[in-house]
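Researcher: Re-running this chain for the archive, since the previous output was lost when a drive failed. Same request as before.
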Amino acid sequence: NPASLSGIVTDAQTKAPLTGALVEVLVVGTTIPVKSTLTDANGHYLVSGLAEGEYRVVISADNYGAQPFRIVLIPGEREILNAALIPHPASIQGTVTDEKTGKPIQEARVELLNNQGKVLAADYTDEQGTFTIRGVPSGTYILRAIAEGFAIQTKPVTVVAGTQPQVDFVLISSPDVGSIIGTVTNQETGKSIEGALVEVLNAQKELVGIGCTDVCGKFAIEGLLANPYTLHIIAEGFLSKIKRVTILANTIEKIDIALIPKLTTITGVACDIKTGLHLPNILIELFNIQEEFITNTLTDSNGQYTVCELSAGTFNVKASSKSYLSESRI
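Model: Regenerated structure tokens:
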């Protein structure tokens, strides 16, 4: 009465199923395979017709670390064995050269940024102008090359586990560059916005600079050639904004941006907990997290309510009636 082995293989980081992962059942202490199979489109596998006994199981996939197991099967058993494989981190390599001379630029700083403009890692070029940034998880990033006497250059890069994408920079020599500094604030409250992303696009809509506001809402983007640019300002919970600016050589342009908060709507229904009937004319009150009253409304004939035009945030919604105990929801 043969036994069988089944399970699902997933990516340990994303939890996504892995198609085509190799499942090998081996004789213990050897590399001799008894049976093997590949996972299907949903990451599932099945190995049947196994005799009772002890086995070594190795589950592997391209660009992932293999995961070994030891199992003991009894007659007629169907063993469930799932595996979450860890992707091999990728690395990014490339060169930084001078556009005029074609020669490598030594000691240029190459930074790896996420899509929020935060610097995650960096490396400096060697005598050949080469750099390598190791241990990069899969994802989409921005690379920024900075060298004294040259305009800063940025490039997008997509990284896949176990790969080594090549990204080369050709920097324009220009001692006559300008900078942008400024602040990003909430238009309604005047308070600074931390973590706002400021992107600088050239006339061809290419990303040439990127900055991220600090705790005081301030940002600075340096090394821009004297040209007109478009700023794209993005912050979570706010409407994005576009602003045009012209940079002059050896100048610092100050730009202050006020963002409008996005508005949200809260809807719901009030019902009798025992009967499930929807209740009309229930008072719905809205408070902020400081328990300050914001607004109120009544449920309609179907027990439904809607509160519109609210700034993004955390609220306490309270339902009350003379005939029912009041209830609150965050």
